[in-house]
């Protein structure tokens, strides 16, 4: 019995000796019995189970010269994400050339002129405050303004209205007329006004209801003048292939900004112009 045990130990020792230091087995070495790998139980975070092997982890290498953005090569700075400059960038930027004092003074004068010329507390609405305008019967405007331009677009001739109508006209120019024209002919330069404040009935009738023109709440526009000098007219271009879509886009943009929006499709009285007014209706804007 003891002799068998000694023989087993001798065989095991010879198998172990046949292995090299790197774990490989020399030729003609006897096989080593497989040993079942130990089961490693999950351990709580922050604890190390006895017998577990810890893998070495590389610590980050901190370069002292890059900690505060030292003067190093641009490529080196970009590697750590501190200063991703091009290697061809200028080390010293050029100072801008100062404008002449005359140009600055002229710009200041233009700004002051715009502030002095604004009405309705809006620098984009240029004109002159008139004050109360009295008319026959129910005609008249409580606080009227004579508008020369809105959003940089000139009105020809000047139009008399109240500030609410002037503000709606400015928004229509910004959101309707200018986007619809775009760069065609250099853009919008002016509006041809055919009616503004006037003490009269609707459609110039001898009797009937008073027009919104009589209260300073309406404006009629017959043409849009471009910077090139060409004019888009409602009468000639409403159904034209060149400008018909632009005019319809302007008409749609006015619906909602004004209470009443009338165009060539409304009736024979408006075949040559847009009628915009700021009348209030419970059902919302009336657009036709």
**Class from helix and strand fractions:** alpha+beta
Largest sheet: 10 strands, mixed
Q: Calculate the terminal CA-CA distance, rounded to whole Å.
A: 118 Å
Oligomer: single chain
Overall mean pLDDT:
80
Percent in strands: 15-25%
CA gyration radius, whole angstroms: 43 Å
Overall geometry:
elongated
Strand segment tally: 10
Count of helical regions: 6
Low-confidence stretches: 15-23, 25-29, 66-70
Order of helices and strands: HHHEEEEHEEEHHEEE
Helix content: 25-40%
Characterization of this structure:
Strands 1, 2, 3, 4, 5, 6, 7, 8, 9 and 10 form a ten-stranded mixed sheet that branches. With 288 residues, this protein is α+β, with helices and mostly antiparallel strands. It has helices at 2-17, 74-79, 101-117, 163-181, 234-237, 244-254, and strands at 118-119, 122-134, 140-150, 153-162, 188-195, 218-226, 231-233, 260-262, 274-277, 286-287. 25% of the residues lie in helices and 23% in strands. Strand 4, helix 4 and strand 5 form a beta-alpha-beta unit. It starts with a helix and ends with a strand. The protein is built from six helices and ten strands.
Which terms would index this structure?
288 residues, alpha+beta, 10-stranded mixed β-sheet, 6 helices, elongated
Task: Provide a compact summary of the structure.
The protein is α+β, with helices and mostly antiparallel strands and 288 residues long. The protein contains 6 helices and 10 strands. About 7% of the residues have low confidence.
